[in-house]
Amino acid sequence: MSSSPAGTETLVERWHRGWIAADQLTSHYEDGYLVVDVKRPHRRAEWIATDEANATAVAHRVALKREPTWLSVPTHSPEAVCRAVENAGLVVARPDEAFMRCTLTGHPRPSVPTGYTVEVERTSVIQARILSSTGEEAASGLMAVVGEDAVAHRIWTEPEHRRRGLASVLMGALVHAAVAEGATTGLLFASAEGAHLYARLGWEKVSDLVVARNDRADVQPWVDLGTVARQACLDDTTGLGPDDVVEGEREMEGLFVTDEPGFHLALGEALLGPGRHFGRTLDELRVHLAARSGFTLKKWHQWYVASAAMPTYFERVFALLNEYGVLDSRLSALVAEHHPHFLLSRQVRRWYQAWCKTIGRKPRNPSHNMLPGRDGEVVVASSDSPNYHVSVNTEHADRLVYPTIDVDDVLTYARLRGRPAGPLEKFLRTDLTAPTEVPEGCTVSVTRGEVISVRITRDGELVGSGTIGVHGEDAAPHDISGQFEVVLGVLVDEARKAGARTGFVITAEPGRYQGWTQVSDVVILLKP
């Protein structure tokens, strides 16, 4: 392998100073090699090869470390570096990243798309967020200014807000603030996907970047075990003692949280250290949270692993941590946005707020799981714990509207409670687009207010009518009669003019909503 070109080593060290400032880390040199003290359970340290000629030597040192340790190698020979670090006993985690730089003067600053706002805050670093019109965080990122260098870090766009140019807007806002503080050069490590975005903004690739790790899991010896063996490990852990203090911001590694004992082992290590637990069950966890919840779980790395592996238990954990206010607000919002059950719940609540306009009901606080609809009707806005929701509402609701991704579970508990089910309905959504053409000779009358009403006539005869409720960026059509497609098209157009971007509906006739996408099934439970 050839040595890095002149200047690369200095740039890497300058980048690292920005990284440790952004993440509030420390670093040191060990036998002449640069080491960042990450101190995460599965990434205790990261070595940085500031000269790729030393990559093999550094890789051998990382392989001998007894703690989980990573290695980053900026290089112009990524394939050769990958072979070298693998021969040293490391695992290549990311072979195709890029080290990039940019002269910040004249950096593009795209305009903010309609419906979004940008917030920039200066603390120890520059923090930027892009919010949707409903106040939800759509994108976020950091930039640390060290001398004349600005290092971008944690640039992220939420999946449902992608392909709208938000990342470019975010970078423009961060760079603008950094230039105001005297920065002239931008530096960053980019994923393969991110490198394309930055290149369009004028960033140039200094070199490729290979990221590798050793194969240690000494901090969590249970990670390769099955559930039964993990439970045995959990049984052997030590609980909370009278002198233990759990406070401040904490981080939990979630890569191996694939079952219930794995969660309690990981949480115990995050709060108390290896071999400790903060409750072996949810009931024990609740007791400890009630007594000692003076900490914040700032990060739950790879939370989506637990979400996919054990969705029901994950939801209960999430609800419990939220109940005692220990989840960082941004982490809580992120999880609620993307966990499938929570995503469904959130969309049901959005539909409910708009739908209530059409039935003349003041919507209940949408944080509740059981939302009153028309007389005797209850909408369930939580798809977990069907036994609880069916049981609680059996005697009080004449009609239970239950959007769910687990139809069989809901029907099973309904049968146990003697609650008959009506025909299955569908919960649909769509992005509101261009209007439908109104047939020639028709006259459209629109009444706008809390709810938008539409009447379409031809030669004095009623062709069709309907209403649509709008709440923020969400709309819910209701009570459509006559020429369905024409009326729906006009309603959607009027809602779009009123600022709505997304339509939701619960219907027994999904085929009439051409182009709408199914979110979930909807079980209708009738009075016993």
UniProtKB/TrEMBL annotation:
GO molecular function terms attached to this record: acyltransferase activity
Give the enzyme's main class according to its UniProt record, as a single word: transferase
Record keywords: Acyltransferase, Transferase
Statement: the UniProt record of this protein carries the keyword Acyltransferase: yes
The record's annotation in PROSITE patterns points to:
GNAT (PS51186)
Cited Gene3D superfamilies: 3.40.630.30
* InterPro entries reported for this sequence: Acyl_CoA_acyltransferase, GNAT_dom
- Residues annotated as domain N-acetyltransferase: 88-226
**CDD domains listed in its UniProt record:** NAT_SF
Q: Does the keyword Cell cycle apply?
A: no
User: Which EC number(s) are documented for this chain?
Assistant: 2.3.1.-
Which Pfam family is an annotated match for this chain, by its short name?
Answer: Acetyltransf_7
Q: What is this protein called?
A: GNAT family N-acetyltransferase
Tell me what organism the protein belongs to.
Lentzea rhizosphaerae
Q: What is the lineage of its organism?
A: Bacteria, Bacillati, Actinomycetota, Actinomycetes, Pseudonocardiales
